[in-house]
Specification:
Elements (H helix, E strand, L loop, with lengths): L10 H13 L3 H10 E7 L11 E7 L2 E6 L4 E6 L16 H10 L8
Antiparallel strand pairs: 1-2, 2-3, 3-4
Helix pairs in contact: 2-3
Length: 113
């Protein structure tokens, strides 16, 4: 159960976090980001996502999504098998540029669509 004082992040607040993260990316990280970003959209997540009507997904790459966990206040990477549903709840408190750096530096990276 989510803390009673918690309220979901608004799209405008999320966009500010995205802009901040993008401003801190290297040129190569920014190029990767521009290949995988999508318009933020709420996706379902069954473990903790119901109270906030899901979590904001901000990028898709192959079978992975980058999404913002507004309970933990950080960006996360999870797999998905069905479009619109995040399969794994993660509790990373990463800033967006850290997630993109992780993807860029991963041996396999993430496939871009």
């Amino acid at each position: 159960m989510v803390h009673k004082e918690w309220t979901p992040i608004s799209l405008s607040e999320l966009n500010k976090l995205i802009e901040l993260g993008v401003s801190r990316m290297s040129v190569k990280e920014n190029q990767l980001w521009n290949k995988i970003l999508i318009e933020p959209v709420k996706w379902k997540e069954i473990e903790y996502g119901e109270e906030g009507n899901g979590f904001w997904v901000v990028a898709i790459s192959g079978n992975k999504v980058i999404w913002y966990n507004d309970i933990e206040e950080g960006f996360n990477i999870s797999t998905y098998f069905k479009y619109g549903e995040i399969d794994g709840y993660n509790t990373e408190q990463d800033e967006l540029q850290w997630i993109i750096k992780k993807i860029k530096n991963a041996p396999q990276g993430l496939k871009t669509h």
